[in-house]
Amino acid sequence: MLRKDLCCLVIILAAQAGCSSSSNRGGANSSTTAVRAPTSSAADVNQVSTTTRATTRTSVSSEVATPKAACQKIVADLAPQLNGRSSAMFQGHKVVFADVALTSKLLTSRDSFYEQMSPLDRQILAVSKDPIDNVKLDADLSKAARNWDSIEISEMRATIAEAQRRADSAGVNFKLPSTIVLAKTSAEIYSGSPYTRCATVFSSGTMLPSVLLHEFVHIVSRYNPEFRATLYPMVGYAPCIVSLSSLGDDVRSRVITNPDTEAFGEYCITLKNDAGLPTQYVPLLIGTGEYSGKADGWTEILDPVLVEVVNDNAVVIDGVTSRTALFTQQYMEAVGLNGEFEPFHPEELVAINLAGAIVPEDGIFPNRGLVADVKAAFIAL
Ligand SMILES: [Zn+2]
Prior knowledge:
Elements: H1 6-16, H2 42-47, H3 66-77, H4 79-82, E1 87-90, E2 93-97, H5 100-107, H6 112-116, H7 119-126, H8 134-143, E3 145-146, H9 150-170, E4 179-185, E5 195-197, E6 200-203, H10 209-223, H11 228-231, E7 238-239, H12 249-252, E8 267-272, E9 278-287, H13 297-301, E10 302-310, E11 313-314, E12 316-317, E13 320-321, E14 323-325, H14 329-334, H15 346-358, H16 368-380
Parallel strand pairs: 2-4, 4-6
Antiparallel strand pairs: 1-2, 3-4, 5-6, 7-8, 8-9, 9-10, 10-11, 10-14, 12-13
Helix pairs in contact: 5-8, 7-8, 9-10, 10-15, 15-16
The protein binds zinc ion.
């Protein structure tokens, strides 16, 4: 997901690293120097940065294929509505412009993201200060569906063509499903930040080619989850198995799920804790404090953390889930320094590096070697 104002948020988070709920127990880096987000142009902030949301699942081997299978069924059921619409082509894949009716169906489809949402997720999606059930959520989501107008479609056709030209020039072939959907929603959902579910890119407006390519990486990953075993270790993560249910009650209902990363607990990172001992962590996004019910309210409570893991379970002591700040120098070095504004999850790190390989001017990449390596690995898959 792409956050419009993430740069500012990251600066705030960086300043708070080690002193917010991020550090609940002396985990890795809680006392190390926080990383300050790089400065960025307004255009970068609006179109390039991406947000990750941790997600929720229960095991690796049994669930890797689940999001893909659910998506395949949803897309198959909607196949009649995908035909005969305005469309474009990207590397041989049909890109369909959804209307308001189709977008409503896509927003309310029961994919793995929908099924695993936390109570806080539902409030944020519905922009609701109060807890809501699925009936109310579906009604609010349907109201958020929009039609693309002819000018936007024309602009997105140009974006798609430029994205293909860039990808072809870089020698990168996107192994996407045969049909991709572009769906427009209210700018109130995730503050208008682009994100994906199944084979759909949701956005509140037109996108830059680099942003579209970033979102396409997520769709490729969702439909080819086996690619992660090659790509995620390149940004510092290793396979693990951590169940969402092992999180303490203090954070489980506060999880903010990134639709781009369905997989909670598939991959972990090992860092040194305060005692200098190697410690395993799983990344997670949680909300701190009450959600205001305003469109940007989620950005005010978003807190990226690393949850300590021992024996495939989150460490919970006296009801408190052991976690530490994610934005630290040690973490950034471990993921290869190219996290830019949202190094919250290996899925986003891979997408940032790959988009940076194809459109290198749209981003800040201290480690160009990693960008080249991720691109080479992606091509070889
Ligand atoms: Zn993303």
